[in-house]
């Protein structure tokens, strides 16, 4: 209290001046129509701007939370889309083996570590066994293919990323039926290679490459990248294409882990066929 | 504070107010340039009156002018502004004036002129900023301040010199 009192006494002249100026300003604003108008329009603008800034700051601080909510919502939507797609396909009578049952489930996850400069690059994600992850599940980013789950811990998992020398899945140009193998030659993390495409495949630079269901890992039609160039490999039976990947592994953060529910059943059938041979 | 100085300053203030509202208010060059002589009286008394009294008197006088002009608190604000800003200290007048009225005879013509010119610029700047509430263009504001200051000084400075018989001699001595 003494400090406040001594501060007031010490600055009494300044305080008196400020009070006088405040009083004069209020008289001026109240007394003159023009000043009144300018003051209230300016103060409304200023208050509005301050509210906007505060609101923007709050929104910025809650981005992480909002992002988490959106990811969860995305996973739910993708699952619902899958259900819808299957029921639609069944009704149109094109594929019978779905039996109106959901084929894939989606689960959101976060990449907590990744590499891009090695020959064998990995992703470490923040979901593990307790979240239902198993080796062999597909990992996609919001814009394209990202990798395949390799090792699963209780809470964390590692995934082979597309830019791993042992990564290989079936893929095809979106507007063609022929498929090839998507691999990485270890040179540039932005480019993968689509090899073993049959010579008769209709292919053009700029075409989108998508996943093929034969891989039994990824759902059909997940984006991989865009064809930048291609050439017929000697002796001339197959085409090899350079693919610019949709997923930028230098900034990958959000991913979805996809479980192909019928994978085991299909693999068992394939095993029976092989044993029958 | 000498009683005779206080008396003569009070008489001068009343006369200035009468002149202001009776004569100078009728002068409106270009529609807005209106000479002001009351600020000169308060500028002269900066070292002569105690600062609290000076601030309150300038505020009350400004309020009276505002009441007369019907302008809210614009003059009161501008007069209390020049009362508050210690321009006399910035110009080194405190050490030479010996706590008297700031006049040509006490500080010399050059110092007096610089002091009163800068003070008038501050006065008119604040007056027009409050009057226009920042919506005016910078060049227009600058020209209004400069013309108003010039026309006010054209009236105030000759009066001050006329009331100082030995002004020329004092000014020359101070300039040396």
What does this structure look like?
The complex is a heterodimer of chains A (277) and B (176). Chain A has 5 helices and 12 strands. Chain A has 277 residues and is an alpha+beta fold. The radius of gyration of chain A is 30 Å and the shape is elongated. The relative contact order of chain A is 0.12. Mean pLDDT of chain A is 84; it is low at 90-100. Chain B has one domain (3-175): Arp2/3 complex 21 kDa subunit ARPC3 (Orthogonal Bundle). Chain B has 10 helices and no strands. Chain B has helices spanning 3-22, 38-44, 51-69, 74-84, 87-90, 94-97, 104-107, 109-132, 138-162, 167-175. Classes of the chains: A alpha+beta (277), B mainly alpha (176). The A-B interface holds A 13, 16-17, 20-21, 23-32, 34-35, 38-39, 42 and B 51-52, 55-56, 59, 62, 66, 70-74, 76-77, 80-81, 84, 130, 133-135.
What descriptors fit this protein?
heterodimer; A: 277 residues; alpha+beta; Thrombin, subunit H; 2 domains; 6-stranded antiparallel β-barrel; 30% strand; B: 176 residues; mainly alpha; Arp2/3 complex 21 kDa subunit ARPC3; 10 helices; 0% strand; transmembrane (chain B); membrane (chain B); Rod shape-determining protein MreD (chain B); transmembrane helix (chain B); transmembrane helix (chain A)
User: Most extensive interface, residues per chain?
Assistant: A-B, 20 and 21 residues
Q: What's the architecture of the largest domain in chain A in CATH terms?
A: Beta Barrel
Instruction: Tell me the domain tally of chain B.
Output: 1
Q: Measure the end-to-end span of chain A.
A: 97 Å
Count of individual domains of chain A: 2
Helix content of chain A: 25-40%
Largest sheet of chain B: none
Rounded Rg of chain A: 30 Å
Protein name (chain B): Rod shape-determining protein MreD
Keywords (chain B): Membrane, Transmembrane, Transmembrane helix
GO cellular component, one term (chain A): plasma membrane
Family (chain A): Belongs to the MreC family.
């Amino acid at each position: 209290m003494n400090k406040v009192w001594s501060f007031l006494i010490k600055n009494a002249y300044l305080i008196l001046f400020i009070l006088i100026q405040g009083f004069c300003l209020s008289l001026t604003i109240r007394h003159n129509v023009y000043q009144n108008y300018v003051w209230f329009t300016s103060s409304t603008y200023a208050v509005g701007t301050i509210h906007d800034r505060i609101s923007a700051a709050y929104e910025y601080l809650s981005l992480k939370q909002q992002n988490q909510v959106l990811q969860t919502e995305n996973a739910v939507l993708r699952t619902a889309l899958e259900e819808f797609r299957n029921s639609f396909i069944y009704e149109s009578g094109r594929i019978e083996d779905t039996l109106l049952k959901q084929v894939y489930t989606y689960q959101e996850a976060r990449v907590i570590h990744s590499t891009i400069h090695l020959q064998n690059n990995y992703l470490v994600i923040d979901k593990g066994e307790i979240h239902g992850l198993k080796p062999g599940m597909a990992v996609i980013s919001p814009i394209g293919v990202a990798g395949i789950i390799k090792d699963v811990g209780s809470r964390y998992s590692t995934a082979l990323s597309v830019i791993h020398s042992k990564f290989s899945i079936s893929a095809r140009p979106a507007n063609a039926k022929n498929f090839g193998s998507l691999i990485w030659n270890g040179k540039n993390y932005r480019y993968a290679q689509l090899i073993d495409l049959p010579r008769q495949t209709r292919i053009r630079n700029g075409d989108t490459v998508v996943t093929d269901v034969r891989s039994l890992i990824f759902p059909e039609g997940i984006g991989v990248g865009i064809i930048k160039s291609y050439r017929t490999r000697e002796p001339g039976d197959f085409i090899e294409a350079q693919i610019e990947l949709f997923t930028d592994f230098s900034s990958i953060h959000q991913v979805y882990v996809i479980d192909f529910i019928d994978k085991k059943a299909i693999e068992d059938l394939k095993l029976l066929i092989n044993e029958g041979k | 504070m000498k009683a005779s100085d206080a008396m003569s300053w009070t008489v001068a203030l009343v006369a200035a107010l009468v002149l202001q509202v009776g004569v100078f208010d009728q002068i409106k060059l270009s529609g807005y340039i209106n000479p002001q002589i009351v600020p000169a009286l308060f500028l002269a008394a900066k070292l002569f009156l105690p600062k609290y009294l000076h601030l309150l008197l300038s505020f009350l006088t400004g309020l009276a002018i505002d009441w007369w002009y019907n302008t809210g608190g614009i003059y009161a604000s501008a007069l209390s502004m020049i009362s508050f800003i210690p321009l006399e200290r910035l110009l080194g007048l405190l050490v030479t004036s010996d706590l008297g009225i700031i006049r040509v005879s006490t500080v010399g013509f050059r110092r007096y002129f610089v002091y009163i010119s800068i003070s008038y610029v501050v006065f008119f700047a604040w007056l027009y900023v409050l009057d226009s509430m920042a919506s005016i263009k910078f060049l227009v504001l600058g020209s209004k301040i400069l013309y108003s200051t010039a026309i006010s000084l054209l009236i105030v400075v000759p009066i001050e010199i006329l009331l100082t018989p030995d002004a020329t001699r004092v000014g020359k001595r101070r300039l040396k």
